[in-house]
Design goal:
The complex is a heterodimer of chains A (841) and B (104). Chain A has 841 residues and is mostly helical. Chain A is 56% helix and 4% strand. Chain A is built from 28 helices and seven strands. In chain A, the strands form two sheets. Chain A has a two-stranded antiparallel ribbon. Chain A has a two-stranded antiparallel sheet with strand order 6-7. In chain A, a hairpin with a 2-residue loop joins β6 (819-828) and β7. Chain A starts with a helix and ends with a strand. In chain B, 26% of the residues lie in helices and 42% in strands. Chain B has helices at residues 2-13, 89-103, and strands spanning 25-30, 35-43, 49-59, 67-77, 82-88. In chain B, a hairpin with a 4-residue loop joins β1 and β2 (35-43). The longest helix of chain B has 15 residues, at 89-103. The two termini of chain B are 18 Å apart. In chain B, 43% of the residues are buried. The chains are: A mainly alpha (841), B alpha+beta (104). Chains A and B meet through α1, α3, β3, α4 and β4 of A and α1, β1, β2, β3 and β4 of B.
Chain lengths: 841, 104
């Protein structure tokens, strides 16, 4: 923090002694210094030699004495500041003449300063420069900034500065590598037709043009869908990365250059130069991904796995070039001065000096590889989506679970690829956000949702004023639902922490929507008999049921994902599993109860109610019309309803029931650890400044604004420890032993259910048609990992049982003096390994 | 110019409060001879200054015959690094006009 702002940050009223070597201000120490201490005389370039004082001072008045004299008026020791200025902003101020903070004091060697980008270079030299740039690009994307990575290259700086300076001419002319500012009068002029000269002014230039174009694209992606500094830092030192140049122009430039290399007599290294250029070309092709139209739901043959579309072959090419280049070793040094901190002291710079940041060569290749691979995976997967459940499962498993580990630009590209500017999904002409919304509802509540076809025909018997009011309400509610789903779709490309934040916001949206839709569906049913009925004849509320299911599912995901993000302290783990158990129980009840009844009601309508209605109608055109409708219901709608019903029962409900069993078992395990006092979930940390009740409330805060289901009270949480009777049982040993037996059986049942699920996903036609099962699919791994976790928990119970047996005569021996709990990464992100270890005495 | 400086010198004797300078576009010469031009945003009782929208002018390291300027944003200038502070005549008049009248 700069000197003045340290003062501001501490307090305006605290007296600060200047000129002392250091001063104590409250809890902050400010280190003072004299000018001699902070300025390195070698770095001081005097403006006196240029007579800057006399040249530039005409028309200026010296007010040094007046300003400093005026300070005598300050009697209360407070700073005087502009009312427009927030003092906190001052913490960003950079202190001049402080070597740690002032970029103007960066020292560079003469070679670094006077590096001439126009000088010819050898093939090896150009290869090493290009290789270093290929290393600096992923370094930038690895939580760094351009000034300390790619822009540390003088060639890049010169090209971009010249591009801004020369407004006319061809791309190659504008991107000149001749530094206008260098005093070159005494230097020897290079021979322009030499290969070495062309290697710089043709090959390296084309490479940098392509690189800058890709950086521009990455910056666009970052500013549109990524988070500044969290994902990518977009600081460019006010240099324009060839915005106005079309990507195709850069690609063409590279093509011409490759042709030139092939035609020239470069004996050694030509293939490497070409591979480097081709890699840059592939990076520039990535832009097509965000504009491509995915033929969603086109192929009815779901099981036929399609290969990647031909125009995405550049992804394979990019991967091939990386493989080729990463196999080489790069020992030839880059020319001295080609990479330096020069730009930090030369260009607009509002930050402090930083060292050049460069990740490991191996990591750099891995990062670029990951970029192409991730894009290849999601585009290939998306091209195979033939039904809505596949899309939904693709987003949930293939994207939701693996995208966070992807290259940051791949994440951003995916977000732009998923939702387009016109809100179409994956660019598919036939799938707007509205369509997506209806599909989303009907894939859970079943097709033929009465309230979604809210038209004049249905409202023909309603008074016009009520009709208009209902229509208006319907439109608004649909818009709200679309907004919520849109918001939901923005989660996938975000980083894991932002995902949690976005889900948290979404929970409130779902809750508001549920309340609004419930009252609307009831109103429509009561006023104009619009709405689906359950077989019992009661209103089924298809849309509200879907919303409630979605909300509960997201609540569960939110709670459990926090575990993998290390959000929870050890003493909060039981709280989360206990709450998750409660939520999953509600989802199971809802899915197996109301949701099933919603679909049964729709089937009942087609099979019974509608045929009865037809019978009642007299022969004539209306009857014929109804008969045709019945035929449509039978041939199109009924199979869809049966499919949804089967999928809900065989996959959704079964997976939830299996998961519920597992969550319960983990909860019981933690209560057992708590009862023996080797893990605490009731007191919190010993040095805590607050109560466990407050900790509970803070942890439950994201759910506390949700109306249904309400958050259990702290008393309920506390009481949950007593439900198993471990603390009160006359024979704790027998009670615990018995419980372990029950839970082991439960775990076994869950394991069987999960295995059945995996089997169904692989073999059952009703289920596997709802997933894209190819080499990129992650669904099987997801459930395999859960099964592995289940087995590991089963072993933990066995271990506990063994410990219990060891101390059956004196259970007080099972305590923190003899045992400790170790929490390590588990097989599945929801289930860390919580094991009991014996302490060596 | 000399007249203004004379007035300026006279004004030292009369009371000018520091808030009068806030918002003025200052030119500060540093001990390493760099020039900083920016808006005075904060000043503390010891003469340490916070300037915003600062343009730094120095000798061009690529060609010492030229100047080089760059934007360095919000800058904290410790008093001991300041050689002198200047304002243009118009700003000077704006700050001191009322005082000059009082003096006369």
């Amino acid at each position: 923090m700069s000197k003045i702002m340290s003062q501001l940050a501490v307090s305006e009223n605290i007296f600060v002694h200047r000129h002392e070597t250091h001063v104590q201000i409250g809890r902050v120490r400010i280190f003072g210094y004299t000018v001699e201490e902070i300025v390195d005389p070698e770095t001081m370039i005097s403006l006196d030699q240029l007579n800057i004082e006399s040249d530039a001072d005409e028309g200026f008045v010296d007010i040094t004495a007046e300003i400093f004299g005026s300070l005598d008026h300050i009697t209360d020791n407070k700073v005087v500041s502009s009312h427009l200025f927030q003092l906190l902003e001052g913490t960003r101020a950079v202190e001049v003449l402080n070597k740690q903070l002032d970029t103007g004091l960066i020292t560079l060697s003469e070679k670094e300063l006077q590096f001439n980008t126009a000088d010819p270079q050898s093939v090896q030299s150009v290869i090493s420069i290009q290789n270093r740039l290929l290393r600096l690009l992923p370094s930038w994307l690895n939580n760094s900034s351009l000034p300390v990575t790619v822009l540390s290259c003088r060639y890049v700086q010169t090209i971009l500065e010249n591009f801004a300076y020369y407004q006319d001419g061809s791309l190659s002319q504008r991107c000149s590598l001749v530094d206008r500012r260098l005093a070159l009068d005494d230097r020897k002029q290079p021979i322009e037709d030499s290969v070495e000269y062309q290697l710089v002014h043709k090959v390296l230039k084309a490479f940098i043009i392509g690189l800058c174009k890709f950086i521009r694209f990455s910056l666009n992606v970052a500013t549109t869908v990524l988070y500044e500094e969290e994902d990518v830092t977009t600081r460019t030192m006010s240099l324009d990365f060839l915005t106005e140049v079309p990507s195709m122009a850069a690609i063409d430039e590279i093509n011409h250059t490759i042709e030139w290399i092939l035609a020239s007599n470069i004996e050694e290294g030509a293939d490497v130069l070409i591979a480097q250029l081709k890699l840059i070309q592939s990076l520039n092709h990535l832009e097509v991904v965000v504009h491509m139209e995915v033929p969603l739901f086109h192929d009815s043959q779901g099981s036929t796995y399609k290969k990647r579309p031909a125009f995405l072959n550049f992804l394979v090419d990019g991967l091939g070039q990386i493989e080729k280049l990463s196999a080489l070793s790069y020992t030839y040094p880059t020319p001295e001065g080609a990479f330096s901190k020069f730009i930090q002291l030369d260009r607009e710079n509002k930050t402090i000096p930083y060292e050049i940041y460069e990740i490991d060569q191996k990591d750099a290749w891995a990062s670029l590889h990951n970029l192409f691979e991730s894009v290849d995976k999601f585009t290939t997967q998306a091209h195979n989506v033939v039904n809505f459940n596949q899309l939904s499962n693709f987003l949930k498993f293939d994207i939701g679970q693996s995208m966070s580990g992807s290259n940051v630009i791949a994440r951003g590209i995916f977000q732009l690829y998923l939702i387009r500017d016109d809100r179409r999904i994956l660019g598919a002409q036939t799938v707007s956000l509205g369509d997506f919304c209806i599909e989303s509802i009907e894939n859970i509540s079943g097709a033929n949702t009465n309230i979604l076809s809210f038209d004049d025909l249905q409202l023909s018997n309603v008074k016009p004023e009520i009709r208009d009011a209902l229509k208006g309400k319907f439109q608004n509610l649909m818009m709200d639902l679309e907004s919520c789903l849109f918001h939901n779709l923005t989660i996938y490309g975000s980083n894991p922490c932002r995902q949690q934040q976005l889900i948290s916001k979404n929970l409130l949206l779902w809750d508001t929507l549920q309340a609004a839709w419930e009252s609307f569906e009831v109103e429509c049913f009561q006023l104009c008999n619009i709405g689906d009925e359950m077989p019992s004849g009661d209103l089924s509320m298809s849309v509200s049921s879907y919303i409630y299911f979605s909300k509960l599912s997201q609540m569960l995901e939110y709670a459990l994902t926090g575990i993998s993000l290390d959000i929870y302290k050890d003493y909060e783990l039981y709280m989360i599993y206990w709450y998750s158990s409660y939520i999953i129980q509600m989802i199971c009840e809802h899915a197996a109860g109301r949701m099933a009844e919603v679909i049964n009601g729709k089937i009942n309508y087609i099979e019974k109610s509608h045929p009865k209605k037809i019978k009642k109608v007299k022969a004539g055109p209306k009857k014929e019309q109804l008969k045709q409708l019945q035929q449509y219901y039978q041939s199109d709608v009924l199979p869809q309803l049966i499919q949804t019903k089967n999928y809900n029962q065989l996959y959704r409900v079964n997976s939830l029931v299996a998961m519920s069993g597992f969550l319960d078992a983990v909860g019981v395990y933690l209560v057992m650890l708590s009862s023996f006092g080797i893990m605490d979930f009731r007191k919190g940390p010993s040095n805590s400044l607050t109560t466990m009740e407050n900790i509970y409330k803070v942890r439950m805060k994201p759910f506390s604004s949700i109306g249904v289901p309400s958050v259990p009270t702290y008393e309920q949480y506390e009481a949950s420890f007593g439900h198993l009777g471990l603390d009160t049982s006359p024979s704790k040993y027998l009670q615990t032993k018995g419980l372990i037996g029950i839970v082991q059986e439960r775990l076994q049942a869950s394991k069987t259910q999960f295995k059945q699920l995996i089997n169904d996903i692989k073999e059952n036609e009703n289920i596997n048609s709802q997933f894209i099962l190819n080499e990129h699919a992650t669904i099987i791994k997801w459930y395999d990992d859960i099964v592995k976790s289940l087995i590991s928990y089963s072993l933990e119970f066995a271990n506990l049982s063994k410990i219990l047996e060891e101390h059956k005569d004196d259970l007080s021996q099972i305590n923190t003096q003899h045992y400790k709990v170790k929490i390590t990464k588990g097989y599945h992100k929801y289930f860390p390994r919580i094991s009991i270890e014996k302490l060596s005495t | 110019m000399s007249e203004v400086q004379e007035n300026s010198a006279n004004l030292v004797k009369i009371d000018v409060t520091p808030d009068k300078f806030i918002g003025a576009n200052l030119r500060i010469r540093l001990t390493d001879s760099r020039l900083l031009t920016g808006i005075l945003t904060v000043i503390d009782p010891f003469g340490n200054i916070l300037l915003s929208n600062v343009i730094e002018t120095s000798v061009d390291r690529l060609n010492p015959k030229n100047f080089h300027s760059r934007d360095i944003g919000l800058v904290s200038v410790p008093r001991e690094t300041i050689v002198n502070i200047k304002v243009d005549i118009k700003t000077h008049k704006n700050i001191f006009a009322t005082r000059i009248e009082v003096l006369r």
